[in-house]
Design goal:
Blueprint lengths: L1 E10 L2 E7 L15 H13 L6 H7 L9 E8 L2 E8 L6 E6 L5 E2 H7 L25 H5 L16
Antiparallel strand pairs: 1-2, 1-3, 3-4, 4-5, 5-6
Length: about 160
């Protein structure tokens, strides 16, 4: 999997920010409190949390400046295809859309679970089951609650 771009809207300090990633390594730099960690957190939560989330986690995403639900759009490549994952985080109004070139669009709960069926990096099989959809990363929910992760390295399946 390779991230192509991320757009965050109404997410903490970001009203509407798009970052396009180059192949290889990318460096995110800026002054303190400029939203660098927020950008990374937004990508993580788009990949691993359900859109209809609430409580402390959802409240941490909400902007105190921009009055709308937090949204994250990720464009990425996986298994030779380009994908778009769009999430609007809200308790009951949350929504998810996962689309790929020439594929059926998955919505909401089906899209939240859709990443579990994406082939791993380098795989040519479209039906290879993988468990890296939202809520599937062991330890990620614990980290969001401020709890220590289990011992051992946590990796995104398919990425060395």
């Amino acid at each position: 999997m390779r991230l192509l771009s991320i757009t965050v809207r109404n997410y903490r300090i970001h009203q509407n920010l798009t970052v396009t990633f180059e192949p290889g390594r990318n460096l995110i730099g800026g002054r303190n409190e400029s939203g660098k960690s927020t950008l990374v957190q937004a990508a993580h939560r788009a990949l691993f949390l359900r859109a209809k989330t609430g409580g402390k986690i959802q409240k941490e995403m909400v902007s105190t400046i921009h009055l709308s639900d937090p949204e994250v759009v990720l464009h990425f490549e996986a298994a030779g295809r380009q994908w778009e994952l769009e999430k609007r985080f809200a308790v009951s109004r949350g929504s998810t859309r996962l689309t790929s070139q020439g594929q059926v669009t998955l919505l909401d709960a089906e899209a939240d679970d859709g990443g579990a069926n994406l082939p791993a990096h380098g795989s040519s099989q479209d039906d290879t089951p993988r468990r890296y959809g939202p809520g599937r990363a062991a330890g990620s929910a614990a980290a969001d609650r401020g709890q220590p992760r289990e011992k051992g390295r946590r990796t995104f399946p398919g990425i060395p």
